Amino acid sequence: MTVPGALQRxxxxxxxxxALPCRGEEAISGRWEGTTHIPDDDLNVIVDLAQENGTWVGxxxxxxxxxxxxxxxxxxxxxxxxNFSVKGTLGIQLKLQLDGSGKLxxxxxxxxxxxxxTLQKTGPSQVEYPPRNTPVAKELExxxxxxxQMLGYTRHVSIKFTNRGPDGAAAxxxxxxxxxxxxxxxLVTQEGDLLSVDSHEIGISFEGRLRDGKLGGAIRQGAIxxxxxxxxxx
Amino acid sequence: xxxxxxxVLLASLCAMAAVNAQSMFRGDATHSGRYAGPAPRQFHRVKxxxxxxxxxxxxxxxxxxxxxxGGDDGNVYAVDAETGRQIWKxxxxxxxxxxxAIVDGTLYVGSYDGKFYALDARTGALKWKxxxxxxxxxxxxxxxxxxxxxxxxxDPFDVFLSSPVVVNGSxxxxxxDGNLYAxxxxxxxxxxxxKTGDVVHxxxxxxxxxxxxxxxxxxxxxxxATTGKEKWRFHAGEDPLVHNQVGFQSSPAVANGVVxxxxxxxNLYAxxxxTGKEKWRFxxDLSWVITSPAVADGKVFFATSDSSLYHVVDANSxxxxxxxxxxxxxxxxxxxxxxxxxxxxxxxxxxxxxxKTGELLWDFQVDTSKQNKGWxxxxxxxFNVPFLYHSxxxxxxxxxxxxxxxxxxxxxSPLVVNGVVYFGSADGFLxxxx
Lengths: 234, 434
What we know:
heterodimer; A: mainly beta; 8-stranded antiparallel β-barrel; 1 helix; 17 strands; elongated; B: mainly beta; 5-stranded mixed β-sheet; 4-stranded antiparallel β-sheet; 4 helices
């Protein structure tokens, strides 16, 4: 059976068009390096983007902002357009377009400010993955309580650990000062007998060891560190 | 003399008193922060701006059509209030982030060179100078949680020097050497000095023969102005961990037997002037009160740093009357002129607010703030804190602080004379707005 010429051309177009997004997406995987021009300053920006099981993952390095291997979130790739956010308190968003010369250009947005960014592919992607939660020892499961002093008054702390199988442990981390603060915990690890609970978003962490039935260590808020001993909640 | 002549004479005397009340930090020896004269409820134009070599933290004062102020470039300036032309400058060997006092033709001011100067207000010629035990900024190990915690770090937010108060032939001022000094205003001879436990960069207020001032040692003092003997002391909050919530940087105001002062422990205090007993305190959720409060019509006007709040509270009870959310930290002290309150903001703006409602009437943003170099500010003029203070290692926070200040922060307390608003900015200019 002979396919008429017009239909043949249409098929070619459809097949080619279907392939375009895939080729665009392939083109977007990799390590991208370039510069963001903010007033009176240039920021070096290094972005790693990759596809894993049909999902986009990525991380970013901005040496001038103390950002290294920070995960990207809300990554969308549509044809030649790439948009993503940078996890954390900086609130950075990039909206980029792959241009004809193979460069990603677009805007770097932060706190309502916007600057031009141009990135060039320099090699295969080197996406960094955030550390994963580990399980905690059985005797640490449950709720622990204690108090500490900071900036002139007492705060009450409660941390509750729950093991979740392959997802490692979860922790509910609450600090009660003048207000009750439920901290968003993004990392719980136990290495040997050293236990760590981190809320990177808030900049507060606890690190301690179980000794004589008490979880003794220190709480860190930014660079301020103060001792904290937690006892099992009654 | 007929009735109308008496009226004219009284009006002239009132006008003279008002003008006299513009020649010292916060207007007068009690630091009321209230000034006479018309206040612009609308902004029309920049009348002039006067360039200096570095930031202007000092507040301007006015005497006989001349505006005087200090510059961080080390100069003391006299500028024609009408034209903005320099009349004279006198160089010292250190920054002058203090507000001069002009009394009987003499200008008094201290410098970071550790000296205190008396200059001829007309020519800038030196009348006398004395050397203190030396200036320094407040410092502490692990200050504000900076690393490393065992390293002593000078406080970049300790921006002011103590401004002198001149009363009854004596000039009084605090020093980074921890002393409050009393000098003979004619000769500079030391009458007495009073030692505290740390830096004194707040300015003393004077009322009924007593000087009131706070020190970075966490105490607020009342000292007999004649003898230098302590009458009482009040202990405010301490913060041995990171030394963030401690010390008096705010200068007090005295009204109706009550002393009002801000503190870095986040409180505004009202203390009985006779006994030092606390009447009330207004807590500001860990946010410093650096502004020197202004007192008028039974109300106290002040603002906060990190929480960036403009407050008016009842002078008797401390109960809130007005609370307005500002955009950035306020270190500048409010000036009350008629029904308008003027205050500087560290994002490089001067604000004019209605005294009764607190509503913003107008604001003026300096050019460096508009340029927003290095994205120091967010698009809505707040400090871009996570972008700026992304590291607490080495000099990064100090550099960030410097960037923050260079946006054109208005630390200076505004002065309003004949409807013209004068203030300094960290962009290096003294502004005259009308």
